[in-house]
Amino acid sequence: MTVVGHDRLVEAMSWAAARALAAGAACSPKPVSTPLREALGCRLAAPLTALVPVPGVDVSAMDGYAVAGEGPWRVVGRVLAGGAPHEAALLGGEAVEIATGAPVPAGAEAVLPWEHATITHGTPQGEGATAASPDWAPTWAHGLIEVGKHIRRRGEDIAEGAVVLGAGAVVTPVVLGLAAGLGHDTLLVRPRPRVAVLVTGDEVVHEGLPAPGRVRDAIGPFLPGLVEWAGGHVTTTLRLPDAPHPLTKALTTPTTASPATPTTASPATPTTASPAVPATAPPATPTTAPPAGSSSAPDGGELGGGVTEGRGVSCGGASAASEGGLGEVVAAAGVVVVCGASSKGPADHLRAVLADLGADVLIDGVAVRPGHPQLLARLPDGRLLVGLPGNPFAALAAALTLLAPVLRELAGTAAAKETSALAGAVRAHPRDTRLVPVRRTGEGAVPVGHDRPGSLWGAALADALAVVPPGWAGEQVELIELP
Ligand SMILES: Nc1nc2c(c(=O)[nH]1)N[C@H]1C(S)=C(S)[C@@H](COP(=O)(O)OP(=O)(O)OC[C@H]3O[C@@H](n4cnc5c(N)ncnc54)[C@H](O)[C@@H]3O)O[C@H]1N2
Ligand code: MOO
């Protein structure tokens, strides 16, 4: 398909080349030391090692009696987990009452669980103690032991210094527990890419029934979940009117101090004069992660075809400067998503604004249906910008084409590769890849229909999008899982 570039006619990039270029354009962020609770879902940037052995000392695995030598054993003390250890080494014939997890005294050969122990007072035979005062008489434990039984030796589970997980492992809830148990308060992880969303459109409203001529925002609501699924995090959503100035302001690294006012209110009828308002407040507690694109180490991606032909993809140093102003929260994100304004109509200002800002447009249209007007650009400060079409299903298709590969590359999250037969009639496009909502079944991927660019109905019924290449003639197709 041919699309009009800034001032030239160019071939739209193939779907596969666009995805590869998007992934290559993402610069690996610097690993960040992150508090445990904030590291959930991130990828480890370094192997996870045991800072301490587990268990840290020889401990009892049972509530009972730690014993030395032959029984019966005279009980000479009590050791509780977290309490004072029994200082003296146990001599043959001695025992201490012990709790699970408490350190076993030196000399202990086994732990006799209380349910297997017989206790007498006075003499080992139970003579000399009165029923009224058994505690004043010596206590004896009797039972059968197996040497070494029920004692967890120091480092028996995990040796100090052991590598328990490799770099790249996902920090799951269980990993948080493991890391904490090994003495970690922070983890070195790839920071989750932070994403700012700009929803453009004078006709777009954000709550309630849209009046005639208005349309409810259907893209802003699905992006946070999609972004999380791909490994990122939406830090803010701004609503912008169809005008170049607010877009320019939002995309420009701010230099004046006038903090954006968070509001939950939504203007029922936006006017072109309305300033951009954050649809969601920026996080109250900023994370320690720097902007995702702030790597100082350009990694230079692969060259793609289409409009980037002959040009290297290099990573600029994203500016984290946020001295206040409309774009403050936008500037703090490594990736900016603009919804709508991707076409070349009278109210579509994105391309002109990008040109004025001196942005590097890496992908200007993709040969895919729906979603062909999508774009990828690098802003002068290094942030990546993904332009999604305004039609909601086209926006979803574009988000899976350009945004997901960028985020997966930044976050280090790989998507599973899947192919399937198509069980149902699908017509290929002569030049463009088609993304078709399907449900996976035992017979293959079944198209669910309802796949007009303006409707999310089909995608909501589907669990994947089938990638139908131009000229496809019945072969297996790639499936992209839907979030
Ligand atoms: N002359 C041409 N016109 C158009 C072409 C083309 O090739 N030549 N492509 C069409 C295609 S395909 C798409 S997709 C759209 C892309 O348009 P924009 O990205 O500029 O988006 P808008 O014009 O602002 O809106 C398009 C459509 O989507 C509705 N919309 C916008 N934002 C939202 C939202 N957040 N939630 C729900 N719906 C939204 C908007 O009201 C319009 O109906 O361009 C075509 N035109
Ligand atoms: O990109 Mo548009 O997809 O076909 O509505």
Describe this structure as you would to a colleague.
The structure is a single chain. Helix content is 15%, strand content 26%. β30 (464-468) and β31 form a beta hairpin. The chain has four domains: 2-26 and 192-411, 3-Layer(aba) Sandwich (Molybdenum Cofactor Biosythetic Enzyme, Chain A); 43-53 and 167-189, no CATH class; 59-152, Beta Complex (Molybdopterin biosynthesis moeA protein, domain 3); 419-481, Beta-clip (Beta Barrel). The two termini are 28 Å apart. It has eight helices and 31 strands. Strands 3, 24, 27, 28, 29, 30 and 31 form a seven-stranded mixed sheet that branches. A seven-stranded mixed sheet has the order 21-20-17-22-26-25-23, sandwiched between helices. The model is unreliable at 1-9 and 256-325 (pLDDT under 50). With 483 residues, the chain is of the alpha+beta class. Bound molecules: ligand LQZAQKY5 and molybdate ion (MOO). Residues 199, 201, 203-204, 215, 217-219, 339-343, 345, 348, 370, 372-373, 389-392, 394, 453 line the site of ligand LQZAQKY5.
Overview features:
483 residues; alpha+beta; Molybdenum Cofactor Biosythetic Enzyme, Chain A; Molybdopterin biosynthesis moeA protein, domain 3; 4 domains; seven-stranded mixed beta sheet; 15% helix; 26% strand; elongated; disordered N terminus; binds ligand LQZAQKY5; binds molybdate ion; molybdenum cofactor biosynthesis
Summarize the helices and strands and which ones pair or pack:
Elements: E1 2-4, E2 9-11, E3 13-14, H1 15-25, E4 32-35, E5 43-44, E6 48-49, E7 59-60, E8 64-67, E9 73-79, E10 94-98, E11 110-113, E12 118-121, E13 139-142, E14 151-152, E15 163-165, H2 173-181, E16 186-190, E17 194-200, E18 204-205, E19 215-216, H3 223-229, E20 233-240, H4 244-251, E21 277-278, H5 328-331, E22 335-339, H6 350-357, E23 360-364, E24 366-369, E25 375-378, E26 384-388, H7 392-411, E27 419-420, E28 433-441, E29 444-447, H8 457-461, E30 464-468, E31 477-481
Parallel strand pairs: 3-24, 9-10, 17-20, 17-22, 18-19, 22-26, 24-28
Antiparallel strand pairs: 1-2, 4-16, 5-16, 6-15, 7-14, 8-10, 8-11, 9-13, 12-13, 20-21, 23-25, 25-26, 27-31, 28-29, 28-30, 30-31
Molybdate ion (MOO) binds next to loops.
Biased composition (Low complexity): 245-279, 290-300
Biased composition (Pro residues): 280-289
Pathway: Cofactor biosynthesis; molybdopterin biosynthesis
